[in-house]
Design goal:
Length: 391
């Protein structure tokens, strides 16, 4: 059954699906854009609310959804009070069927706004910070877990965490990476951009430049590869708050690493890459890991969060924060071309088992119908039903 078919899709007249997100430059913004596109294609009226800068980057309105600014910064500030008031004003003028918040920050604003419509919150990230900020975030976790009608976790550990904090209805809802467009350039052209010789390996990582991603580990490992013959070229695509300290680390270590900034040609970069690397301290279902496996690019990734469940035997998993482990895993693969080909084959086979973007949209359409007034009961699990998890 497609996202367009069935009783869930037919009942979109019950009101608008409000998608709410905080400031985002990466995976959450991409996911919300994909949902907005899929839900509008399924006949659901969609309103996206979030920071104006996030709309500028992801252009939610181009998906067929409407957009209203609600400024929710990435970190807790007194502006949260204004965000709650702004969301209340938006909802007062809207016949909302459901308010679906993405991420803890947006979830807190949605819960505190106390809308008449049911609140669904998707947990995309774990709380890793310590100190005062970490304490405030853990308090927000508890408020959001207990205030949402349904909590969706992007990975099993997030489902377990939300349940432990008192979420009444918590389910696993894997986030599917949007399909990349076809590459526009050939492999040789991509490699020529970075002056990569024919016999040189090109190692790629993509993600927000944030301490959670632990690109310092990749830089330190890459500094050791400078003595290899030929030395690999390492490129990191992404922007974020860790750019300046990371650039300084690259320079100090004389590592063969280039920070590319924000890129929109990830499909091209994967075409030119020999190896993909993820060094994060935590991830749910990282979009770049999904993109690499779909493209058949061999992946080295940290065994954290939802990554082991995601990749199975389709990637080489290493301990987080371990420069030696990353160094060794990459060296072994660089010295074994046949092994890289086999790993890429296994990764692509693993990717073929993941839920598609269309299936993800179908699951949400069914969930929203389940929450509609007068619905007889939970949706029956299936192609159009919510992903099952702990209830």
């Amino acid at each position: 059954m497609s996202a367009r078919s069935g009783p869930a899709a037919a009942d979109h007249r019950r009101g608008t699906v409000v998608l709410l997100l905080a400031s985002s430059t990466g995976g959450v913004g991409q996911h919300v854009r994909a949902l907005a596109r899929g839900l509008t294609a399924a006949g659901e009226p969609v309103l996206v609310c979030g920071p104006a800068a996030t709309q500028d980057q992801f252009d939610f309105a181009a998906t067929g959804a409407r957009f209203r600014p609600v400024e929710i910064p990435a970190s807790p500030t007194p502006a949260d009070v204004r965000a709650v008031a702004a969301l209340r004003r938006v909802l007062a003028a809207e016949r909302a069927a459901v308010v679906h918040a993405h991420g803890l920050r947006a979830g807190l604003v949605a819960v505190l706004a106390r809308p008449a419509a049911p609140v669904v919150v998707t947990w995309h990230n774990a709380v890793l910070a310590g100190g005062l900020r970490g304490g405030l975030s853990r308090l927000a976790e508890r408020i959001v877990a207990r205030g949402a009608r349904v909590t969706l976790g992007a990975s099993a550990d997030l489902v377990e965490r939300a349940g432990a904090l008192g979420a009444a209805d918590v389910r696993l809802a894997p986030v599917a990476a949007p399909e990349l467009p076809a590459p526009r350039r050939r492999r040789a052209a991509v490699r020529a951009e970075f002056a990569v010789a024919a016999d040189q390996p090109l190692i790629l990582s993509v993600g927000r430049l944030h301490p959670q991603k632990r690109y310092d580990v990749l830089v330190d490992a890459a500094a050791r590869w400078r003595e290899r013959v030929p030395p690999p070229v390492v490129v990191i695509a992404g922007s974020g708050p860790a750019y300046l300290p990371l650039a300084a680390r690259v320079s100090a270590a004389r590592a063969p690493v280039t920070l590319l900034g924000h890129r929109t040609d990830v499909a091209d970069l994967l075409t030119g890459a020999d190896l993909a690397v993820v060094t994060s301290d935590w991830e749910a279902r990282q979009l770049f890991a999904q993109e690499a496996l779909r493209a058949g690019v061999p992946l080295v990734a940290t065994a954290v969060g939802g990554l082991p469940e995601l990749v199975g035997d389709g990637a080489v998993l290493v301990s987080p924060g371990d420069v030696d482990a990353v160094d060794t895993a990459v060296r072994v693969l660089l010295d074994d071309p046949a092994g890289r080909v086999e790993l890429g084959r296994r990764g692509a086979a693993r990717a073929a088992t993941w839920p598609t973007e269309a299936e993800t949209v179908g699951q949400l359409v069914a969930l929203y119908a389940e929450l509609a007034p007068g619905h007889a009961g939970p949706a029956t699990p299936g192609a159009d039903a919510p992903s099952t998890g702990r209830r």
